[in-house]
Specification:
heterodimer; A: 107 residues; mainly beta; four-stranded antiparallel sheet; globular; B: 121 residues; seven-stranded mixed sheet
Chain lengths: 107, 121
């Protein structure tokens, strides 16, 4: 199975900050990577697919980059509603696997 | 509006069985692979199983192979997960999700609200 490693596992940031979350795959996955946002007691919501394509309805302050084994989710200017846990997921091969999550907290 | 609504969760004893259901609406159900993804309390996400549009292909994570069965009823726009020989480590919120992408290994959008399965004596 492909292992997905996210860093950091948590971070504290202020409204307006630029936030970067990293995701590393244990083997090359081309651009078969998605990002999700999950708020407490809620279902995950998709943000990015194909490493850098913004899902419909997602604010443009979210962006994704990378290919192969190293990927990044960037929030250009953190908003109050962005405080949540973020997960990456590879869909290069079975089984699809998720990173351990990055919790973004208020500083 | 695309909507997925799970039901069927609850408390079950180790070794017991449970059947989860997911009612889909707002999209052409027969056009999509569908998945179950779970999340243990306070933990991350784990894909469990998926099924092709016509039910002819099914895939499972190793930890549930031989115990869980995914199925669908396209006439009723419904997805199911039959869970047998349940273990404490199967305790989780189970989400129904629509697969997105062109093949069998996909990303997921949208997700249902989830249904909690608790395996305990």
């Amino acid at each position: 199975d492909i292992q997905m490693t996210q860093s950091p596992s948590s971070l504290s940031a202020s409204v307006g900050d630029r936030v970067t979350i990293s995701c590393r795959a244990s083997q090359g996955i081309s651009s078969w990577l998605a990002w999700y946002q999950q708020k407490p007691e809620k279902a995950p919501k998709s943000l990015i697919y194909a490493a850098s394509s913004l899902q419909s309805g997602v604010p443009s302050r979210f962006s994704g980059s990378g290919s192969g084994t190293d990927f990044t989710l960037t929030i250009s200017s953190l908003q109050p509603e962005d405080f949540a846990t973020y997960y990456c997921q590879q869909y290069h091969s079975y089984p699809p696997t998720f990173g351990g999550g990055t919790k973004v907290e208020i500083k | 509006e695309v909507q997925l609504v799970e039901s069927g969760g609850g408390l079950v004893q180790p070794g017991g069985s449970l059947r989860l259901s997911c009612a889909a609406s707002g999209f052409t159900f027969t056009s999509y692979w569908m998945s179950w993804v779970r999340q243990a309390p306070g933990k991350g996400l784990e894909w469990v199983a998926n099924i092709k549009q016509d039910g002819s292909e099914k895939y499972y994570v190793d930890s549930v192979k031989g115990r869980f069965t995914i199925s669908r009823d396209n006439a009723k726009n419904s997805l199911f997960l039959q869970m047998n020989s349940l273990r404490a480590e199967d305790t989780a919120v189970y989400y129904c999700a629509r697969d997105r992408s062109s093949g069998a290994v996909n990303w997921f959008d949208p997700w249902g609200q989830g249904t909690l399965v608790t395996v305990s004596s």
